[in-house]
Every structure is written in C-alpha cells, then in structure tokens.
Design a protein that fits this description.
With 561 residues, this protein is mainly beta. It has 5 helices and 33 strands. The chain has 3 domains: 119 residues, Immunoglobulin-like (Sandwich), CATH 2.60.40.420; 173 residues, Immunoglobulin-like (Sandwich); 195 residues, Cupredoxins -  blue copper proteins (Immunoglobulin-like, Sandwich), CATH 2.60.40. A 6-stranded mixed beta sheet has the order 11-10-13-18-15-16, with no helix packed on it. The protein starts with a strand and ends in a 27-residue tail after the last strand.
Length: 561
C-alpha cells in the first residue's frame, strides 16, 4: 500500500518482499528499483537553479531490462508537490493502472512513496520516463528506459561495443513553477535559454554565446568500435537537429521498432521522440568531435544560443574540438527537407522485434478501418478568460478523480464519451471529453496542425503505424498516398505546421490511454484526451485488476488507506 516516508531499512525490506511476491507470480525475472525523487541545485547554463533529480542524478538512471521482465519501481516523492511518473512508449499491456498520468492514477503526495509494477510484455527498444504533471518535466526528472531483446531473438545488427543514452532538450533557467505560473497568467514562454545534453550545457565552441565555466557532456569512445546511441528529445517544445561531426548516423530503431537501416548526416528529432543509431568511430583522432543538437524551424539571432554541444572523445585523441560546428540542414525553415527525411524512415519488415516472427507479419495495410478521427489543433486562445489549447475545439480539463478509477467504482459524471470525430463548428470549450474506442477495432487518426509551429503527438498504451504526412488539408483522397506496407510503428509523431499526419492503430490493449501533445506547454494548456478501450465480455483475461496499492483521490479519497 502507499505509505509515508520510510527509513532505508524499511524500504529495503519492502523491496525484498515485493521482489519475492513478483517472483512467485511469474516465471519472468523481476527488476526492482528504489528511487528518491528530489530537488537539487545545479547550473547547467551558468545560472544556479532547482532541478528534479532521481537518487541524486540529473538526468535520472537508465532502466535497463529485457523483454517480458517484470519491473517494480518504488518512487519516494521528496518534492514539495504531488508527482506522477509516466513511461513514454512502454505499452503496459492490460495494465493502464501503471501508466502514470492523471486519467489513470492519483498523484503521489509529497512525502509519500508508491511502487509502480508492470511487465514490459512483448516489447523491445528505446524509451524514456518523465514526471507527467505540474510542468515538472521542465525541471528534469527524466531518464532512459531500455528494453533489450531476449537472447533467443536475433537482432538485425551485430552487438555494438557500447550502449550510450543521450537526453537532449530545450531548457529554461527559470524554475518550473515560474514557467507554470506564466502559462497560468496567459503568457507565452518565449525563447528557451539553451539546450542541454545529458543535463549539461554547451561546450564553449563560441566565446560570445557560451560563458566560461559551463559543464558539458563528453562521450569517451575507442577508435574502430561501433556504439549504439539512443537519443531522446526530452525537451519542452523545440525540435532539435542532431548530428555528430564527421560521423554517419546509421538509423536502426525508433521507439520499439527496428527500421530499415540507412545513414543520415543529421536527423530532426521532435519532442518526445527516441531514436537508436549505430555510429562507428572511423575518423582519425587528430581532435575531438562535436556532438550537436540545434533548434529547428526558428527565426532570429536570439535563437543562436538554443543549441546543445557535447564532445565525442576518442581514447587516442590528440586535441580539443575547435572551429565551426557541423552544418545543420541548409535552411532552418526547410520543412520539406525535414518531411522527406521523416518519410524515409521505414519499418524493417523482415527483422524480428520482441517475438521470433518478422515485424512485417502484422499486415496493417490489409485491415479495415472501423473508427476514424480527424483531430485538429488551434493556436492557444482565451476560453472563459483563460489561455487554453484545443483539439477539435475542446480543451481537456483533468478531473480530480482519475477516469479509470471512476469507471472501476462506478462514479458517474466524471467525463463524457463524446470527443468529436472532427472539429465541431461551435465556439471552443473546456471539457473532460474522451474517445470511445472499440476493443479490437482498427482506428485511423489524422492529426491536422493549424498552428504556426510544429507539434508532436503521443499515444500511451500502443504503437501506431505512421502511414502518411503532407502539407495542406487532409481529404478523403489523401488515403491514396498512404504507405500500407512498411510505415514505421512508434508512439510519437510530428505534425508540421499547415500539414497533416495520419496513423493507424489496432485497439487490442484494454484500458484508458492518454492521447496528448508532447509539446509541454500545449499539453499543459489542454491539448489531450483519452481513448477508452473496454472489452464488452466480462473477463479478467484482458485487463489486470486494480492494484492493491492504488492511491485514491477526488470522489474516492475516503478509500485511501
């Protein structure tokens, strides 16, 4: 059950007990972690500020597990406000109880701890976790979640010499509470103060833009060796172009899907996205090399500082990196280049994923669509005197009682199953409106971006197939351009301004699943909904029961032990 702050010895006893229980329940291994989520002081851009750490680390530790392992993570909330951790891309089969968002979980109160317990069933790949409420991701609290193949499953490349995680993201030097207050007051956040790579500021490549004394990330490598780089954009709202000076990026995997392997000199990585590259250290070691993550689709010299620079250091390097950074794409506004790059990312249909059968054995292109949603956004606007962001004219309002718990205990009036299939013509409104998904149905979702900046959208509980994207307004005949064979399966996709992106998803995972903007300000202002998927047959085989340690709040707070 949930408990107040516990002493280390008690926590250890609970760890052992939970591990033994888990081992008794399943033949698959258990991995148990104790996390203390707390504030710490650091100055990644030269200005001391408060960030969110895990076990004294910023970013937090990488969870490294294998397909079908059971994971138990005991989270102690040492912040001064409630906390939830969500697991971007981890599907939580039959188990939305562990998803860590407001629609499924009551937040962990300050000073309390709570244990997430879930299985990484039939998944492999590169994911990350982060705090999902109160704009806390802007202060950190994120880290990697790596799911390795079982030894019996062949991987479509040789085992790399090393495995390296990079967390890149735009960053403000303001406290996350101050950023939150600015949004509450109807203000835009403005231009970020920089870009962090693994929680550190830029190498001093430019004496005007980068002050003295900034701690920067250095990746140590050996000549001739090949490394797997897992790169995650954990930022707030800025797309970043990632590149390593003089080195090719061989794309191999994204968010749990092996891709057709192809080389890139740079790749646009949008907020919430994760990619794996194989990078061979095949250059001479006359100097170190730059690792760069720079802002895309931005204007003005004030954005010049929004760039992350780390160092790739060969063990036999003869000198420091110097000179200009490797070039980004020719035109920072060239969205056509970026869209063509995105279209080139294809599913490796012959490779095995988490199971022995090839990924392409699921022939999504031959399945009939049973539900269709065209989801249009609009730039933030005032609704009832408050700055809000909308999807199909609705700005989501999270209720005090989580949706899934409300259903479990038959609490009525918490939400409505009336999210519109397309933008309705009336004035925008604030509501708790949810999509009624059909269990074992096949849903087509078109994201139409009517804003002036790029957006990323994410669906919990699933990987969807990215079948098309183009500029202009989506129409019925746009389906003629869909990729119905090797569109990559992933959980986060970009939608360019004035453009659309179409995805297909098989609704085979019972639960209540968050569909949201990954751009943190848009999400905070209401660009989200949920897809409710219910098995109409009465059975305990398609969804796990409410966990014994569930937290209760809202209309159910009297049930809290």
């Amino acid at each position: 059950m949930a408990r107040r702050r516990v002493a280390p010895a008690a926590a250890l006893a609970f760890t052992l007990a939970a591990t033994l229980v888990g081992l008794c329940l399943s033949g698959d291994p258990y991995a148990y972690f104790d996390w203390n989520v707390a504030y710490m002081k650091t100055a990644p851009l030269g200005v001391e500020q408060q960030v969110i750490s895990i076990n004294g680390k910023f970013p937090g530790p990488v969870v490294n597990v294998t397909t079908n392992w059971n994971v138990a993570i005991n989270v102690l909330n040492s912040l001064d406000e409630p906390l939830l951790i969500t697991w971007d891309g981890v599907q939580h089969r039959k188990n939305s109880w562990q998803d860590g968002v407001r629609g499924t979980n009551c937040p962990i109160p300050a000073g309390w701890n709570w244990t997430y317990q879930f299985q990484v069933k039939d998944q492999i790949g590169s994911f990350f976790y982060f705090p999902s409420i109160l704009f806390q991701r802007a202060a950190g609290g994120y880290g990697g979640f790596t799911v390795n193949n079982r030894p019996i499953i062949s991987v479509p490349f040789d085992t790399p010499y090393g495995d390296i995680s990079l967390f890149v993201g735009d960053w403000f030097s303001k406290n996350h509470k101050d950023l939150r207050e600015e949004l509450d007051q109807g203000k835009a956040l403005g231009i970020p103060d920089g870009v962090l790579i693994n929680g550190k500021g830029p190498y001093r490549y430019n004496k005007t833009l980068v002050p003295v004394g900034i701690d920067y990330e250095t990746i140590d490598v050996h000549p001739g060796k090949t490394y797997r780089f897992r790169v995650h954009n954990v930022g707030i709202f800025t797309c970043l172009n990632f590149r390593i000076q003089s080195h090719n990026l061989l794309l191999t995997e994204t968010e749990g899907s092996y891709t057709v392997q192809q080389n890139y000199t740079n790749l646009d990585i949008f907020v919430g996205q994760s990619y794996s590259f194989l990078i061979t250290m095949d250059q001479n070691a006359s100097t170190d090399y730059y690792i760069v993550a720079s802002a895309r689709f931005v204007n003005g010299s004030k954005w010049d500082r929004v760039i992350g620079v780390g160092i790739l250091h060969y063990s036999n390097s003869k000198g420091k990196a110097s000179g200009p950074l490797p070039d980004p794409p020719n035109d920072v506004f060239d969205k056509t280049y970026s869209m063509n790059q995105a279209r080139s990312i294809r599913w490796n249909v012959t490779a095995s994923g988490a199971r022995p059968n090839p990924q392409g054995s699921f022939r999504y292109g031959s399945i009939n669509v049973t539900q269709m949603y065209v989801i249009k956004n609009k730039s933030p606007m005032l609704i009832n005197g408050k700055l809000r962001a909308t999807l199909n004219g609705i700005s989501y309002s999270p209720p005090e009682t989580p949706l899934r718990l409300a259903d479990q205990y038959d609490k009525k009036g918490i939400y409505k199953l009336n999210f519109p299939t397309k933008a309705f013509p009336g004035p925008p409104k604030i509501a708790t409106s949810v999509i009624n998904g059909t269990y074992r149905g096949f849903m087509e979702i078109v994201f139409q971006n009517n804003e002036s900046r790029v957006q990323s959208y994410h669906l919990d509980g699933y990987a969807f197939f990215v079948v098309g994207m183009d500029y202009g307004e989506w129409a019925e005949n746009s389906r003629g351009t869909y990729n119905k064979w090797d569109g990559v399966a992933r959980s986060t996709i970009q939608v360019y301004p004035g453009a659309w992106t179409a995805v297909l998803v098989s609704l085979d995972n019972v639960g209540t699943w968050n569909l949201r903007s990954e751009n943190l300000d848009s999400w905070y202002l209401g660009q989200e909904t949920y897809i409710k998927v219910v098995n109409p047959e009465s059975t305990n085989k398609t969804e796990l029961p409410v966990p014994d340690n569930a937290l209760y709040c809202g209309l159910l707070e009297d049930m809290q032990k």
